[in-house]
Design goal:
By secondary structure, the protein is α/β, with parallel strands linked by helices. It has 2 domains: about 200 residues, Rossmann fold, CATH 3.40.50.300; about 210 residues, P-loop containing nucleotide triphosphate hydrolases (Rossmann fold, 3-Layer(aba) Sandwich), CATH 3.40.50.300. It is built from 16 helices and 15 strands.
Length: about 450
């Protein structure tokens, strides 16, 4: 494959096809002493490692790209390493913040940013470096709809003004198809199964690609038929609730009543407190004000306040899937990761094996059972994090961006799995910017502002 200067390339492929690895190779941060490589890859006729300052990489996990404590310093870091004059650095910092729509003070603590805001921060740091090649790994995955447009348009404006080459990985084709010159689809076993203009690839090969898990707007993935159920008893409720990560509340959802056998979606713009609310409902973060109260059915003798429950008590009552799947990976293999919860419940070996085998198969992780969880693709890590919570069969499941990194096939399968859980009596609370997912699953929606 040859990518010409100034080209804008959308890189597609099913989950686990190697898209992120290819971007890392272009940026010169894979190979040599890390990983394995065969064949040849050149940027401007040289090995990618020789052009690290000329290539800007926005990785899939924005947390891993935050370096310094303050927003302004973090954006300036790359420019400082390139030896850009001080006055020019801060001009670029202000300009890149404006480009990506991150409206926070330069001295804002980076740890206080939401996941979506960190994604904008990572992009701002790359744009400030003014690289000749910009490679982006799902840069809009955790952004609200307005943020998706802002970030995409910021990238295109930089490309138009500087002539930079763009290679972007994104599962949602419709976001980028109108602004790229070329679409390349990677095959799971290696090589490319399509390479051409967006029209040629998406129109002429759309049906075939959709069957392989590529998001093709004309061929939407199937959605499960939900069972209509009568109103159920309240499983979890909140009273005058205020949530935050310090003593200051950043969101006030106040009084919520979440029934059993119900799917609740939490939506709203980046930074509105969705993840914080999810952690509070999951019994992992204390309310700033008010209370989260479990019904006697959910508490099952553990007391009415989930924040006071021990970890083993949470296992069968409320399972939580974090926004960043790496934050809950504990072991060295996928199989042993799935065994952690069941073994904490002291289940016998036969029951542990049965639960793990079922989840490996249902979430397409069986071929990765002996792999190190940290070597999985972003989409595979997300499915693993969901599976670890399902392994203990909690009555209520709280998920933060559960469809992040999924191709259309695994998205549909994950949606069907969650719908089946709800229909069988479980409660699902999902934070999501994925409106298709929300519309297909949610029985009710809470929107934070």
């Amino acid at each position: 494959m040859r990518i010409q200067p100034g080209e804008r390339v959308l890189l597609l492929g099913e989950s686990g096809a190697g898209k992120s690895t290819f971007l890392h190779a272009l940026a010169g941060v894979v190979g040599d002493d890390e990983g394995e490589a065969e064949g040849a890859l050149f940027v401007d006729g040289e090995l990618p490692a020789a052009h690290r300052g000329r290539t800007g990489l926005v990785i899939q996990d924005p947390d891993s790209q935050v370096i310094l404590e303050r927003v302004g310093d973090d954006i300036a870091f790359g420019c400082e390493n390139l030896g850009v004059p001080r006055d020019e650095i801060w001009r670029r910092v202000h300009h890149s913040l404006e480009q990506v729509g991150l409206n926070v003070a330069l001295d804002r603590n980076t740890s206080a940013l939401s996941g979506g805001q960190k994604q904008r921060l990572a992009l701002a740091g790359v744009l400030a470096m003014q690289p000749g090649l910009i490679v982006l790994d799902e840069p809009t995955a955790n952004l609200d709809p307005e943020g998706v447009t802002e970030v995409r348009d910021a990238v295109i404006r930089v490309a138009e003004s500087t002539g930079a080459t763009i290679v972007v990985v994104e599962h949602r084709v419709s976001v980028w198809s109108d602004v790229v010159d070329r679409v390349v689809v990677l095959a799971a076993g290696g090589g490319a199964i399509a390479d051409g203009s967006p029209f040629d690839v998406l129109s002429r090969q759309g049906e075939e690609l959709a069957a392989r898990g590529v998001w093709i707007p004309q061929f939407p993935p199937p959605r499960p038929q939900r069972t209509v159920r009568p109103a159920q008893q309240t499983l979890l409720s909140t009273h005058e609730l205020g949530v935050g990560r310090s003593t200051r509340a950043i969101a006030h959802p106040h009084d919520l009543s979440i029934p059993s056998s119900h799917a609740l979606a939490i939506t709203g713009p980046n930074g509105s407190g969705k993840s914080t609310l999810a952690l509070t409902l999951g019994g992992l973060l204390a309310p700033v004000s008010g209370a989260v109260v479990a019904s006697p059915t959910l508490a099952a003798g553990a007391g009415e306040h989930p924040i006071r429950w021990k970890s083993r008590e949470l296992l069968t009552r409320i399972g939580t899937v974090f926004q960043d799947p790496e934050h809950q990976l504990l072991t060295s293999t996928v199989r042993s990761e799935l065994e952690v919860g069941p073994r904490a419940l002291k289940l016998n070996d036969a029951e542990v094996d049965a639960r793990v085998d079922e989840l490996l198969t249902r979430l397409r992780l069986d071929r990765l059972a002996n792999a190190n969880p940290f070597t999985l693709s972003g989409g595979e890590k997300r499915r693993l994090s969901v599976a670890t919570s399902l392994a203990t069969r909690p009555r209520m499941l709280v998920l933060d961006e559960p469809t992040f990194g999924q191709d259309s096939r695994t998205w549909s399968e994950l949606l069907a799995l969650l719908a089946r859980l709800v229909d069988d009596g479980s409660t699902v609370v999902a934070v999501s910017h994925d409106l298709e997912f929300v519309n297909a699953l949610a029985d009710s929606t809470v929107t934070l502002t």
